[in-house]
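Record minuted for completeness.

…
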Amino acid sequence: MPLPDTGRGLVIRTDFTDPAAWEAVAERVAEGFAEEHGGPGGGDPLLDLVDDEEFSGLTPERARLLAVGTDFREAVFLADSTTMGAADRMLLAVAGHREEDHVWRFRVKPESVQRMVLMFSTKFSFEDYLDEVDDNGVYAY
């Protein structure tokens, strides 16, 4: 199962137990886009939401492997069981473009994903965000 080749960042649903939770994630991602672009309808989204049961149970390790060698995959964002089960709906950011064994990851608010993808396309790397991750593994901006 290859990742969709959209040339954009990806928020991938990996847990299909709660449709309302996924809708809440999608709404919060859209809110972040609207904040970044001055309201709905402005700008071109730099990420796509992937709602395909083919990715059910996708692990961070497998996501990283799928992202290696693809365009615009500094990170992929997983809406996993932790995302769906928590009120804050934090996504799991997983570093792409890495061929080493360690999987770099942290939790991030859905509203922050659009800005992160925008920054990846300009000057920031996944490592830049790791410097701002707290002791609980959360990027809180």
Summary: Residues 9-139 form a domain with the Rossmann fold fold (CATH 3.40.50).
